[in-house]
Design brief:
By secondary structure, the protein is α/β, with parallel strands linked by helices. It is built from twelve helices and ten strands. The protein folds into two domains: about 35-130 and about 255-320, D-Maltodextrin-Binding Protein, domain 2 (3-Layer(aba) Sandwich); about 130-230, D-Maltodextrin-Binding Protein, domain 2, CATH 3.40.190. Helix 7 crosses helix 12.
């Protein structure tokens, strides 16, 4: 009898609890968005990642009927803003747009978050190819010429970056190792500083996001040697890729991605992915992102989350191979 009463009591408890459980499960997917959505960009306003976030955020706001607020929280190589999102409530209302989670994880020794545990990939906002540019007064006008010049006089040529561990630094190191050349790395505080040094003729080359250099290339103020990618850029169709030129492991695939706190329910992640995917299909959004040089990266939410995790692993391997010391 005791066991029967226990079974009856358990069944009764389940019947009472079941509607509540079902309601909670429905709430997790239907409650998003129940308020304004904040997208943290861990860089200063005006950079390519920031513009991408704003373009998509405007369309997303129209679709979901809630404000989408872009909050710039730059500092510490993008890790300050990432840390804010990592510790936010995992309900889909605080998100991160970044392209540096993988590189920051590989280069910084004391992060305030665990990259793989504290973030989930939601959707890519596009691949952001880098273009190698050099001053117009240099004798080399192609990447092959640059490599030949570097091999002829090891250690004499230099390349710039927007700082140690930045995407422009890691792209430069990937090309250096793939080409087997000895060149000096000159880090600057920001990407625009390095680009100015190329125009001034004090740097031999620099791998920069295409939007930053596009008008300079068109006006002849810098020379485009190659695109660090696996396929040609739609906005620079006449510029070959580093892979085309025989550097098989040379492409550094910089991308902008939308991320949520790691404990965000799966159904909420999928719902956000669906809305962002819809936003990316809007003709105005497509046009504006294309002008930024962003190449589409169509993926499901699980596919993008795997891509993000593979990128984290790839950056760790690159930093080790390049022998870049950890940054505090």
């Amino acid at each position: 009898m005791g066991m029967q009463r226990s079974a009856v009591a358990l069944a009764a408890t389940w019947l009472i609890a079941a509607p509540g459980i079902a309601w909670c499960q429905a709430l997790s997917s239907q409650a998003w968005p129940s308020k304004a959505v904040t997208i943290v960009v861990p860089f200063t306003p005006g950079v390519t990642v920031d513009i991408s976030a704003r373009v998509v955020g405007e369309q997303l706001s129209r679709q979901i009927g809630q404000p989408v607020v872009i909050e710039n929280r730059g500092g510490a190589g993008g890790t300050l803003g990432a840390g804010i999102v990592a510790k936010s409530e995992a309900d889909g209302h605080t998100l991160l747009v970044s392209g540096s989670l993988g590189s920051a994880n590989a280069i910084f020794a004391n992060l305030s978050y665990d990259t793989l545990r504290d973030f989930a990939g939601v959707h890519s906002l596009g691949l952001q190819p880098l273009v190698l540019v050099s001053p117009p007064d240099r004798p080399f006008k192609t990447l092959r010429d640059l490599i030949a010049a570097a091999k002829a006089k090891p250690g004499t040529l230099n390349y710039g970056s927007g700082g140690i561990g930045s995407a422009t630094h890691l792209a430069g190191e990937r090309i250096r190792m793939s080409a087997g050349i000895d060149v000096q790395h000159v880090p600057f505080k920001g990407a625009n500083d390095a680009l100015r040094e190329v125009m001034a003729g004090r740097l031999d080359w620099y791998a920069t996001p295409i939007p930053s250099a596009l008008e300079l290339i068109r006006s002849g103020k810098v020379v485009a040697l190659a695109v660090s990618a696996t396929r040609r850029s739609s906005v620079l169709p006449d510029v070959p890729t580093t892979v085309e030129l025989g550097l098989n492991d040379s492409a550094y695939l910089l991308y902008a991605g939308l991320f949520a706190p790691g404990k965000t329910p799966r159904d909420v992640l999928v719902k956000i992915h669906q809305e962002v995917d819809k936003a990316l299909q809007a003709s105005a959004v497509k046009e504006r992102l294309q002008k930024l040089g962003a190449e589409p990266m169509p993926m499901s939410q699980p596919e993008f989350d795997k891509y993000f995790r593979d990128d984290v692993d790839g950056n760790i391997k690159l930093v080790k191979a390049a022998k870049i010391p950890p940054q505090l």
